[in-house]
Request: fold
Amino acid sequence: MTREKANEALVNAMRKRGAEAVSKATRLLVDAHRSAKPADTGEVELHSEDEAYRVQDAVFAALWSGARPAAWKVGGPSDKVTPTAAPIPPENLLHSPASVAGAKMRMIGVEAEVAFRLAKDLPPRTRPYSERAVAAAVGEVLVAVELCDTRLANWKKAPGLWMLADFQNNSALVVGSGTKDWQKVDFLQQEVEFRIGARVIKVKGVHSFGNPFRLLPWLARHCTKRGLGLHAGDILTTGSWTGLEIARAGDEVTARFPGIGEATVRIL
Reply:
């Protein structure tokens, strides 16, 4: 066998392995959503972010056929690494004040975030959108509480690619009040007060990207690669300011960003 034939055979084998992993992962996560029983992922290995995103798309299509994302979550630990993203279906986009059943969640994670609502479409196109073009499409910035949960049985030790495939642990997004004068917000000095039951967390200017708007041009490019685009009315949430906190049944959770707004959700 020539070197070219050997390389071709290797590439085909890797593609087959990837396709099988995506198919198996999709079935596991769809079953976990429908049965409310966590997925045992130990025998399935995802090998790349591309595979994880293909699983996202396939699970979304299976569970919400004909729908498109009403929101997206995007973020990362710092501006030195490539962000990650996950779609949020319409049924998981809630409005403050909201309430959710904590008994149905394996992990009642809560995060204080800011989200941007688009006023104009950003459809897929060959030329990447500039920061100016994306900024012109933003209508307002809003305060949000992201609810995080998992469909993975061994979620504390699960590889990052599995968490990404599982919509990056998103369970719902609670959107509150905000402001259309978002370009006047000094995110580097923005204060945050996050209340989880009796606990109070206060921080200032701690977003991992400094200005969370910086994530939006990347997200526009990412959605273009997936052939989805972004639409007027879409909510783009940009990651936690206080890290992942764990709430309990009975807690009222409120994120307050002075000068922007607040969002509240009660855990039943």
Observations:
- Residues 6-14 have pLDDT under 50 and may be disordered.
